[in-house]
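Box 3.1 A note on notation
Throughout this textbook, protein chains are presented in two layers. The first layer is the amino acid sequence; the second is a C-alpha coordinate string describing backbone geometry. Keep the layers aligned when reading.
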Amino acid sequence: MRILIVAALAMLFGVSGADAQQQRGRATTRKPKPKPVPVKPKIEPAKVTCPESLGIGVKTGASYCFVIAGSDPALGVLVTIPPHTGEATLSFDLHNRHTYSEEQMKAGRGFAQYTAVIGVLSMKGELIDRGAVQTEFRAARDVHERISGGAGPGGVKAVAPVGAEHVAIVIPAGIDQVSLLGEVLNATTAAGRESTAPGRPVAIVSNVTIEYRPRR
Protein backbone atom coordinates (compact mmCIF):
# COMPACT_ATOMS: atom_id res chain seq x y z
CA MET A 1 0.00 0.00 0.00
CA ARG A 2 2.82 2.42 0.91
CA ILE A 3 4.38 1.83 -2.50
CA LEU A 4 1.12 2.71 -4.25
CA ILE A 5 0.74 5.93 -2.23
CA VAL A 6 4.33 7.00 -3.01
CA ALA A 7 3.80 6.28 -6.71
CA ALA A 8 0.57 8.27 -6.75
CA LEU A 9 2.23 11.23 -5.01
CA ALA A 10 5.15 11.11 -7.46
CA MET A 11 2.75 11.16 -10.41
CA LEU A 12 0.78 14.06 -8.87
CA PHE A 13 3.85 16.20 -8.21
CA GLY A 14 5.30 15.35 -11.60
CA VAL A 15 2.16 16.52 -13.41
CA SER A 16 1.91 19.63 -11.25
CA GLY A 17 5.57 20.49 -11.95
CA ALA A 18 5.03 20.07 -15.70
CA ASP A 19 1.95 22.27 -15.54
CA ALA A 20 3.90 24.94 -13.63
CA GLN A 21 6.72 24.86 -16.16
CA GLN A 22 4.24 25.21 -19.03
CA GLN A 23 2.57 28.15 -17.28
CA ARG A 24 5.93 29.79 -16.64
CA GLY A 25 6.86 29.24 -20.28
CA ARG A 26 3.62 30.82 -21.44
CA ALA A 27 4.09 33.76 -19.07
CA THR A 28 7.57 34.55 -20.39
CA THR A 29 6.58 34.36 -24.05
CA ARG A 30 6.28 37.96 -25.35
CA LYS A 31 5.35 39.32 -28.71
CA PRO A 32 8.21 41.09 -30.48
CA LYS A 33 8.05 44.87 -30.34
CA PRO A 34 6.86 46.41 -33.60
CA LYS A 35 9.59 48.17 -35.55
CA PRO A 36 9.30 51.97 -35.50
CA VAL A 37 7.72 53.41 -38.63
CA PRO A 38 10.35 55.38 -40.59
CA VAL A 39 9.72 59.11 -40.70
CA LYS A 40 8.89 60.14 -44.24
CA PRO A 41 10.97 63.00 -45.67
CA LYS A 42 9.30 66.36 -46.24
CA ILE A 43 10.00 68.81 -49.03
CA GLU A 44 8.96 72.40 -48.44
CA PRO A 45 9.93 75.98 -49.28
CA ALA A 46 12.80 77.07 -47.10
CA LYS A 47 12.76 79.98 -44.69
CA VAL A 48 15.16 82.43 -46.34
CA THR A 49 16.64 85.63 -44.97
CA CYS A 50 17.62 87.69 -48.01
CA PRO A 51 20.10 90.55 -47.43
CA GLU A 52 19.31 92.11 -50.82
CA SER A 53 16.18 91.20 -52.74
CA LEU A 54 15.83 91.58 -56.51
CA GLY A 55 12.06 91.19 -56.38
CA ILE A 56 9.19 89.02 -57.60
CA GLY A 57 8.98 87.38 -61.02
CA VAL A 58 6.10 88.61 -63.19
CA LYS A 59 5.30 85.12 -64.57
CA THR A 60 5.97 82.69 -61.76
CA GLY A 61 5.65 84.88 -58.67
CA ALA A 62 8.98 83.44 -57.48
CA SER A 63 11.12 85.49 -55.13
CA TYR A 64 14.63 86.33 -56.36
CA CYS A 65 17.52 87.13 -54.02
CA PHE A 66 21.02 88.40 -54.76
CA VAL A 67 23.96 86.33 -53.54
CA ILE A 68 26.60 88.79 -52.33
CA ALA A 69 30.37 88.26 -52.50
CA GLY A 70 32.03 87.91 -49.13
CA SER A 71 33.37 85.56 -46.48
CA ASP A 72 31.21 86.36 -43.42
CA PRO A 73 28.35 83.83 -43.22
CA ALA A 74 26.20 86.30 -41.28
CA LEU A 75 26.08 88.56 -44.39
CA GLY A 76 24.99 85.87 -46.84
CA VAL A 77 21.62 84.51 -47.90
CA LEU A 78 20.59 82.61 -44.76
CA VAL A 79 18.59 79.41 -45.10
CA THR A 80 17.03 77.85 -42.00
CA ILE A 81 16.68 74.06 -41.83
CA PRO A 82 13.71 72.89 -39.67
CA PRO A 83 14.35 70.51 -36.73
CA HIS A 84 15.38 67.25 -38.37
CA THR A 85 17.27 63.99 -38.06
CA GLY A 86 20.14 62.97 -40.30
CA GLU A 87 21.14 64.80 -43.43
CA ALA A 88 19.00 67.34 -45.29
CA THR A 89 19.04 68.42 -48.93
CA LEU A 90 19.08 72.09 -49.92
CA SER A 91 17.86 72.82 -53.46
CA PHE A 92 17.64 76.08 -55.38
CA ASP A 93 17.81 77.60 -58.85
CA LEU A 94 20.93 79.63 -59.53
CA HIS A 95 20.93 82.46 -62.08
CA ASN A 96 23.31 85.03 -63.47
CA ARG A 97 22.57 88.72 -63.07
CA HIS A 98 21.97 90.68 -66.28
CA THR A 99 21.02 94.31 -66.92
CA TYR A 100 18.77 94.37 -69.97
CA SER A 101 19.03 97.34 -72.33
CA GLU A 102 16.79 97.71 -75.36
CA GLU A 103 19.15 100.38 -76.74
CA GLN A 104 22.11 98.02 -76.63
CA MET A 105 20.07 95.32 -78.32
CA LYS A 106 19.13 97.68 -81.17
CA ALA A 107 22.76 98.72 -81.50
CA GLY A 108 23.90 95.11 -81.74
CA ARG A 109 25.83 95.29 -78.47
CA GLY A 110 23.57 93.14 -76.35
CA PHE A 111 25.83 90.06 -76.07
CA ALA A 112 26.95 89.09 -72.57
CA GLN A 113 28.61 86.07 -71.01
CA TYR A 114 28.59 85.13 -67.33
CA THR A 115 30.11 82.54 -65.02
CA ALA A 116 29.23 82.66 -61.32
CA VAL A 117 30.21 80.38 -58.44
CA ILE A 118 28.72 80.52 -54.96
CA GLY A 119 29.51 78.65 -51.76
CA VAL A 120 27.16 77.08 -49.22
CA LEU A 121 28.72 77.50 -45.77
CA SER A 122 27.90 76.57 -42.21
CA MET A 123 27.45 79.48 -39.82
CA LYS A 124 30.98 78.68 -38.57
CA GLY A 125 32.35 79.46 -42.02
CA GLU A 126 32.97 75.85 -43.05
CA LEU A 127 32.43 75.21 -46.76
CA ILE A 128 29.81 72.51 -47.37
CA ASP A 129 29.64 72.63 -51.18
CA ARG A 130 29.47 74.96 -54.18
CA GLY A 131 27.06 75.76 -56.99
CA ALA A 132 27.84 77.31 -60.39
CA VAL A 133 25.98 78.71 -63.38
CA GLN A 134 27.27 79.70 -66.82
CA THR A 135 25.11 81.72 -69.21
CA GLU A 136 25.30 83.55 -72.53
CA PHE A 137 22.86 86.33 -73.32
CA ARG A 138 22.14 87.11 -76.98
CA ALA A 139 18.46 88.05 -77.21
CA ALA A 140 15.52 89.03 -75.03
CA ARG A 141 14.35 85.40 -74.94
CA ASP A 142 17.48 84.53 -72.96
CA VAL A 143 16.11 86.39 -69.93
CA HIS A 144 14.80 83.77 -67.51
CA GLU A 145 12.07 86.07 -66.17
CA ARG A 146 11.41 89.78 -65.80
CA ILE A 147 11.05 91.25 -62.32
CA SER A 148 8.16 93.47 -61.27
CA GLY A 149 8.52 96.84 -59.58
CA GLY A 150 10.65 98.71 -62.11
CA ALA A 151 10.32 101.83 -64.23
CA GLY A 152 10.72 100.04 -67.55
CA PRO A 153 7.94 99.20 -70.04
CA GLY A 154 5.37 97.01 -68.33
CA GLY A 155 6.65 98.03 -64.91
CA VAL A 156 9.61 95.65 -64.93
CA LYS A 157 13.15 96.16 -63.68
CA ALA A 158 16.14 96.38 -65.98
CA VAL A 159 18.07 93.84 -63.89
CA ALA A 160 16.86 90.30 -64.53
CA PRO A 161 17.97 86.70 -63.96
CA VAL A 162 19.43 84.87 -66.96
CA GLY A 163 20.06 81.14 -67.09
CA ALA A 164 18.79 78.68 -64.51
CA GLU A 165 20.96 75.97 -63.01
CA HIS A 166 19.23 73.67 -60.53
CA VAL A 167 21.54 72.96 -57.59
CA ALA A 168 21.03 70.30 -54.90
CA ILE A 169 23.42 70.14 -51.94
CA VAL A 170 23.47 67.63 -49.07
CA ILE A 171 23.66 69.35 -45.68
CA PRO A 172 25.36 67.25 -42.97
CA ALA A 173 23.45 66.23 -39.85
CA GLY A 174 23.50 68.67 -36.97
CA ILE A 175 23.41 71.85 -39.07
CA ASP A 176 20.26 73.99 -38.70
CA GLN A 177 21.26 77.02 -40.80
CA VAL A 178 23.50 77.69 -43.79
CA SER A 179 24.69 80.76 -45.65
CA LEU A 180 25.01 81.34 -49.41
CA LEU A 181 27.91 83.62 -50.38
CA GLY A 182 29.37 84.62 -53.73
CA GLU A 183 32.87 83.39 -54.60
CA VAL A 184 33.58 83.93 -58.31
CA LEU A 185 32.16 86.16 -61.04
CA ASN A 186 33.54 86.37 -64.56
CA ALA A 187 31.36 88.55 -66.79
CA THR A 188 31.80 90.07 -70.22
CA THR A 189 29.16 92.65 -71.15
CA ALA A 190 28.82 95.75 -73.33
CA ALA A 191 30.24 97.71 -70.39
CA GLY A 192 33.40 95.57 -70.28
CA ARG A 193 34.73 92.93 -67.89
CA GLU A 194 33.29 92.45 -64.42
CA SER A 195 34.68 90.32 -61.60
CA THR A 196 34.03 89.57 -57.96
CA ALA A 197 34.04 92.49 -55.54
CA PRO A 198 33.21 92.21 -51.82
CA GLY A 199 29.68 93.32 -51.07
CA ARG A 200 28.58 93.15 -54.73
CA PRO A 201 26.08 90.67 -56.24
CA VAL A 202 27.64 87.59 -57.81
CA ALA A 203 24.50 85.64 -58.70
CA ILE A 204 20.78 85.29 -57.99
CA VAL A 205 18.89 82.45 -56.29
CA SER A 206 15.21 81.47 -56.40
CA ASN A 207 12.93 78.54 -55.52
CA VAL A 208 14.86 77.56 -52.39
CA THR A 209 13.55 74.31 -50.87
CA ILE A 210 14.56 71.90 -48.11
CA GLU A 211 14.10 68.12 -48.02
CA TYR A 212 14.44 66.67 -44.50
CA ARG A 213 13.16 64.06 -42.07
CA PRO A 214 11.30 65.80 -39.23
CA ARG A 215 12.60 65.15 -35.74
CA ARG A 216 10.25 62.92 -33.70
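The mean pLDDT is 88. The helical segments are 2-28, 102-106.
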